[in-house]
């Protein structure tokens, strides 16, 4: 690996960066709301099983391809495919993932901007600035444009500093901060009336629901999307890993952390929902369906925080600061995908490439803001329901079918010379060839239907 590309300086740095990519708004908020909408503890159990049976093997495929290629996603995939059709397919999958990551960041920055404005609102309220507080929590072009731009600038500033001084340095700071805030909030919420009811709904499964088709497909999709698969991100991160590192254990650590934080987030959100319900906030309809699933974080929780009195301002600040940190750890990886390709393909320096790509994404975000009703939901559906499953499916096919088994083994053995004698190697090559494409294909077909 050339010094120009850079690499993670430590195992801990990579784990924090990869986990930060996986742990975002979708994980901290998406997983709990999916849980509340799909049988509570039954969904949690299905998710935990599928995360290790599907997401981990697929993650390993992207990491192995990335480290072997030591390059951006397009070049890495081309190195394991034959000229002609193989190279054309590699470009389609690699560049498609890069575009997908950029589009995800374009709407993600808008939502992250809302989180940032919600973080500042308690400060304005405490300072007696009622007008400013109202503006911070009201939907408006000025607020959305300002905070979207601010979030993108913050992401660009981190990425422009490179792998070790940018991605790794800030992931190592932000992820522990996220965990501290998360556990502090859990400790507070669990002392409130109604929390134990929520905890029971979250931890005691109704086994009769576990094999429901909709529940399984939802859990499968959540497990897949939560690890940033199908966006070229993990191929890029894999290319920054030292050849001396054991990829099998690294991938396992990232999966464990991702699942752990999603589970812990549920320990906060689900009890908090029932606490809010105990205080008169309507969470579920008469039929038991979750109300306002997409915007619940901006409706139910502020009402809960307001009912807490003065301490609610502090809790509100801590929660939305947590969400903003989660958003930033994911946005870093999304921006890195197109930046790394631009730097290596066109020979631009990192600073120039980062600000150029950041500017393009900002323009896309502003276009979405100006045409919110038409574009916001469309871009989310296009990328998360169609783009990611299809691209993730193709990456598994590349690792399982385009790359010969010997080359695959040799790459993994560089960090663990005894790999071929492990249970992992006896199962994974077959799994990535047949099981993962079939399961991911199921998610994709379901998204179309």
UniProtKB/TrEMBL annotation:
Residue span of the signal peptide, if any? none
- The coiled-coil segments of this chain are none
Please give the GO cellular component terms listed in this UniProt entry: membrane
Tree of life domain: Bacteria
Q: Read off the InterPro entries from this record.
A: Na/ntran_symport, SNS_sf, YocR/YhdH-like
Q: Does the keyword Chaperone apply?
A: no
Specify whether Cell cycle is a keyword of the entry.
no
Topology relative to the lipid bilayer, per the entry, is: Multi-pass membrane protein
Key words, A-Z: Membrane, Transmembrane, Transmembrane helix, Transport
Q: What parts of the sequence cross the membrane?
A: 12-31, 43-65, 85-111, 145-163, 175-195, 215-238, 250-274, 311-335, 355-380, 386-403
Q: Where in the cell is it found?
A: Membrane
State the name under which the record lists this protein: Sodium-dependent transporter
Q: Which organism is it from?
A: Pseudoalteromonas ulvae
């Amino acid at each position: 690996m050339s010094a120009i590309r850079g690499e993670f300086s430590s195992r801990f740095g990579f784990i924090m960066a990869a986990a930060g990519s996986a742990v975002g708004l979708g994980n901290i908020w998406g997983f709990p709301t999916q849980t509340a909408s799909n049988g509570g503890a039954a969904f949690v159990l299905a998710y935990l099983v599928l995360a290790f049976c599907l997401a981990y093997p697929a993650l390993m495929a992207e990491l192995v391809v990335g480290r072997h290629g030591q390059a951006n996603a397009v070049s890495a995939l081309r190195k394991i495919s034959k000229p002609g059709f193989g190279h054309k397919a590699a470009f389609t999958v690699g560049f498609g993932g890069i575009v997908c990551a950029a589009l995800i960041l374009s709407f993600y920055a808008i939502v992250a901007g809302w989180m940032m404005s919600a973080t500042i609102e308690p400060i304005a309220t405490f300072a007696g600035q009622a007008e400013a507080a109202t503006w911070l929590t009201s939907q408006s072009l000025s607020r959305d444009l300002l905070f979207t731009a601010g979030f993108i600038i913050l992401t660009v500033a981190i990425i422009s500093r490179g792998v070790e001084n940018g991605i790794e340095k800030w992931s190592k700071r932000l992820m522990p901060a996220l965990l501290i805030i998360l556990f502090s909030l859990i400790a507070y919420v669990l002392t409130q009336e109604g929390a134990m009811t929520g905890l029971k709904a979250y931890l005691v499964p109704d086994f009769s629901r576990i094999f429901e088709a909709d529940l399984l497909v939802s859990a499968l999709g959540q497990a897949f999307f939560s690890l940033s698969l199908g966006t070229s991100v993990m191929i890029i991160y894999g290319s920054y890993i030292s050849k001396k590192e054991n990829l099998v254990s690294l991938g396992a650590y990232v999966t464990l952390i991702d699942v752990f934080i999603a589970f812990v987030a549920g320990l906060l959100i689900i009890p908090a929902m029932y606490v809010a319900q105990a205080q008169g906030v309507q969470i579920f309809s008469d039929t038991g369906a979750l109300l306002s699933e997409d915007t619940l974080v901006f409706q139910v929780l502020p009402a809960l925080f307001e009912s807490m009195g003065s301490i609610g301002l502090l809790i509100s600040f801590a929660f939305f600061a947590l969400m903003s940190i989660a958003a930033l750890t994911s946005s870093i990886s999304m921006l890195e995908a197109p930046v790394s390709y631009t730097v290596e393909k066109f020979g631009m320096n990192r600073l120039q490439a980062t600000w150029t790509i950041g500017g393009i994404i900002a323009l896309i975000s502003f276009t979405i803001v100006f045409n919110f009703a038409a574009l916001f939901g469309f871009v989310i559906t296009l990328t998360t329901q169609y783009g990611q499953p299809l691209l993730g499916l193709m990456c598994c096919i590349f690792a399982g079918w385009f790359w010969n088994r010997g080359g695959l083994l040799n790459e993994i053995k560089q960090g663990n010379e005894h790999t071929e004698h492990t249970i992992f190697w006896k199962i994974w090559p077959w799994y990535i060839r047949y099981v993962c494409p079939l399961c991911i294909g199921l998610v994709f077909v379901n998204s179309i239907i």
